[in-house]
Records
---
Amino acid sequence: METQRRCIHTREAPEPIGPYCQGNVAGPFVFTAAVGGLRPDGSLVDGGIGPETDQALKNVAAILKAGGCGPGDVAKVTVFLASLADFQAMNQVYQRHFRSPYPARSIVQTALPKGVVAFDAVALRP
């Protein structure tokens, strides 16, 4: 069985900084690319981990919406943090974007091209 795949594009999230889609719809799933705290115009929000987490998760939600689902449909999130010292501050904002039962989640400390946090998500379309 061949699965159809469709590239997601929305003006409500920043353009990719490389040769990739903001997200993909593949069968019943929506996969987002990792996206940080950039405004849709590509500028980084000011204020560090809190505002960046909020903007990054708004970007994820915009990509999910363009793919036919929303934060309540997310099964898995990967968090990319420049510093694990930001873990608690990120969690405080994260809890405003996702509700129980929370998605499964992994956290990776890594260097990021812009900002201090990024997220990607996998969702199941309703």
Note: The chain has a mean pLDDT of 97.
---
Amino acid sequence: MKPQLYEYYTKHLENGTFVSWLAVDDIKVVGTSGMSFVEKPPYYSNPYGKIGLLSSMYTLKEYRRKGIAKKSLDRVVNEAKDYGCGAVQITASNMGVLICTDYGFKKNEKFMKYAF
């Protein structure tokens, strides 16, 4: 996976379709988040078709419940708005679901995936 991740991040950080943030305590990285920008054909609730896909959101255990995730989500949502996205989507862990639900994300029961 390392070569594929390196290629992805190099390409998409350079062309602006991936953004990432670090939460830092002094010189220690204590949290991360990243978002990819994708485009679909426009539709009624998203007339420009742009979507932010949130990924790689993590906070070290000893730094949880200190507002880091909320600040990360603030940055994610603001960046998505600035980019012109009509929505932000996330695939979250059980803990992530709670954080995102508290923030205002809604579950979409219509989402399906076919993996191969």
Note: Helices lie at 2-15, 68-83, 94-103.
---
Amino acid sequence: MAKNYKQLTESIKRQLNPENFVLRKSFSDELATISYSDVLTYIRVAMKGVEPEYTQKSMEAGEHVKEHLSNKLSNIVFRYQGSVMTNTHIKGFSDIDLLTISDKFYLYDANNVKAIISNPEKSSQYYQSSIDKLQHEISVSPYQGNPINDLRILRFDSEKILKEIYDICDTTKPKAIKIKNKSLNREVDVVIANWYDDVISIINNKGDYRGIQIYNKTTDNRENPDYPFLSIKRINEKSTETNGRLKKMIRFLKNCKANSDQNIDLSSFDINAICYDIDVSEYKTLSFYELVPILYNQMKSIC
């Protein structure tokens, strides 16, 4: 069945601006004077980011949660993760992920660190400054507490605090506490986690290279390490290098998935990876509509 791209375009406009903020004049004027076919208009709109005013309200909801938790908890730090941090979110009512990270301890990839230190052949592949950092990591006294118990208590205490404040507070999900700020009409996922450092994180002075392990309430254990801050850093940097084209492609694929009649089994992470993997030289000077065949060829090469 042929697609009605005019209807699809209107649908995406509502997603971009669900609360009817006044569109920025430059983009509003552009849409009013655009002379492209419905398909090209759809492509243009599908690549557009959500209105900044909408995103700001999502951030405000996250900041309110941070304030409530920090007032009653100690030894924690907060970070945001997800597509809001790269401005590649598309859904009008998408939530924001607030990582609540225990600062009482951190874990690191001890096996690989020790394997490098103890093996001259492996050690020779690293600068001495990097070896010094790895040796320092081994020399640090191990945490004497119980990491799982710390995470369990942090999850329990966070649930208790948020249930007292928010009427809508879902504590049944294994990896997140979902609240809704009714005055801002925003949802926030509160995710309990601990820091995790692999070899790359250690030799790069941690920072955005640090990983996390999310606490799973159902299994009462930690998930495998994830590196959300490095992903955010890479997407933001490469999109700057391409004058925003990378993020346009990511948003376009997300909108295609959202508007498809088919069940497309691709996560946001998958879509990020597909677009990020494309050689910058193939698209860094292209117009917006010329990015579509680039995406088509990339998808075809994968399939």
Note: The CA atoms of residues 53 and 278 lie 31 Å apart.
---
Amino acid sequence: MESIREFIAASQHPHAYARALKESGTAIIGYLCSYTPEEIIHAAGLHPMRLFGSAEDISLADTHLQSYCCSLVRGALADVLAGNLEYLDGAVFPHTCDTIQRLSDIWRLNTKFRFFADVVLPVKLTTESSRAYLSDVLKKFRMDLEEAFDITITNEALHDSIQTFNTIRDMLNTLYEIRSENPSKISGRDLHGIVKGSMIMDRDAAAQALVKIADELRAEAAPPAPKRKRVLVAGSVCSHPDVYTMLEKAGAEVVWDDLCTGSRYFGGMISTSGDPIEAIAQRSFDRLICPAKHKSITIRGENLVQAAREHDARGVIFLQLKFCDPHSFDYPYLKEFLDSQHIPSMLLEVEDQLPGEGQLLTRFETFVHML
């Protein structure tokens, strides 16, 4: 399907896509976290571009970051130091974790882009004071963009942007539901490319293409569902489409996920009425949280179990970036929570490169066999 190939091409060659977009006169703002208020960037006429780190040699980051920082941050820093992100006009850093907070300072001191912003979002998402604080942070971010790019971000533009992102989220959720119902309709590898591409492509074009893909998949005759074990993948960022291919070889299908490059990215719609800044802030309270945020002691485990039950997943695979502190702290409690619900799980720790295919396939086969 041509539309799917467009997303996959963007996900595989993000720099080439961004440079072509830059040549059209579009200013590009980079970000690393799904809590970034993309709607405000988009409403400003700018392009929000998620950075995943693509430098083959991330040793350039060694002079600035300790070896125990995750490969996502090290890769992004290596990219900018190597000159691979010359197309950026700026970057946004939500305070997600200590490593990204430190990257923010290093980035600010070692780059000369037009725009830089720390967006310090609240951690505790259960109080009215945190809601008011978040709205104030987003209002300041709006004003910072207006000042830096000499523009006015109107409420009308924000509402239009919210509608665009709601379409993207709705269609991504639809594609996930289609795959959950029958994994033969779209491969896990292709769906991974679509989600990742959605964070890179022009958002208006992405929204239109996603509607087309969803319509075509719904209209297709359903092939027989594969006789593989159904699993859920949980973690932070998945930059390895080979994971999905190897799981299929091992006899499993990923039917849902709890990833910030997956369901956590598109979860939660934004109201199209009322104050748009308040509506954007509200989504942070409605969406599935990551370990860097807090709602209750057990909410992450409850969400994981609920997703596994709803999508008939027989096991959970934790795909965890090495040295990712928030997810590392979360893992023991989540495993214990899954054990109490008799849901098997396994932990796969990865960096910028996956373990050897033979080793990884053996681990997957062993886990799938016990489901």
Note: The chain has a mean pLDDT of 94.
